[in-house]
Structures are given as C-alpha cells and as structure tokens.
Specification:
- The chain is built from 5 helices and no strands.
- The protein has one domain (2-123).
- The longest helix is centred in the middle third of the chain and has 32 residues, at 36-67.
- It starts with a helix and ends with a helix.
- It has 124 residues and is mostly helical.
Length: 124
C-alpha cells in the first residue's frame, strides 16, 4: 500500500508537471502583447513550475524504487517533497487559483492531494 501511494502520487504530479510544460506557448500567448522581457519571464516561470513538479514526481519514484520506502533517507525525501508541494499549493491558492481558469483552480487541490498521499505513505 505504501509503495502504491508513492507511485500513484508520483505519476499524478509528474503528469501535472507535463500538463504545465506542453501548453506553455499557448499560455504565454494568451497574455496578449508582452514586452520580450515579460514574455521570457512568464515563460521561465511557467516552465520552472512544470519542471519542478516533474522533478518531485521522478525523485520520489526513483528513491522509492531504488532505496525502498522504509529507508530513513527515502522518508526524508518524500516528506521534503510533500512539504514543497504544500508550499506550491499555498502559492497557487493565493495566485493562479483566483483566476477563472479551471486548471489553475485545480492546482492547489492536486498538489495538496499528492502531498497528503506522500505523507500518508510515510506514516503507514
């Protein structure tokens, strides 16, 4: 059960990260006319969040696979990843989730759900 929670959570957050990366061009274009600097900053931030989510998913999956979920170091990685997801969820709740865009409204819930899956897996 422990490994299942970790792998499912990792898959969800990895795919959510990919979901950030794929539409980057369309998202940035949706902001209309931007200065080149603003376009670059917006692109950088959008891609950075997608890569961060992918990294968290891969990191938890790899440490679970290679070291096992019982190892103290693995639990530390999982709990640190859960904490980062909760920080990102809070950031999303106060920013993007206040827009009318449904995926942005879902962001804090998805990040929080995966964080809770990770934390639950370390307590089993």
């Amino acid at each position: 059960m422990q490994e299942l929670l970790l792998y499912i959570g990792s898959g969800i957050i990895f795919l959510w990260g990919i979901g950030h990366l794929l539409p980057t061009r369309d998202i940035v274009s949706g902001f209309g006319d931007l200065t080149p600097d603003n376009r670059r900053v917006l692109t950088m931030e959008w891609v950075a969040e997608g890569l961060t989510l992918c990294f968290i998913g891969v990191l938890v999956a790899i440490t679970t696979l290679l070291a096992g979920p019982e190892l103290i170091a693995t639990r530390l990685v999982i709990r640190a990843s859960a904490t980062m997801l909760l920080v990102l969820a809070a950031l999303s709740a106060f920013t993007g989730a206040r827009t009318a865009v449904l995926p942005m409204k879902l962001c804090p819930w998805i990040k929080s759900a995966v964080a809770l899956m990770y934390l639950a897996a370390t307590l089993i």
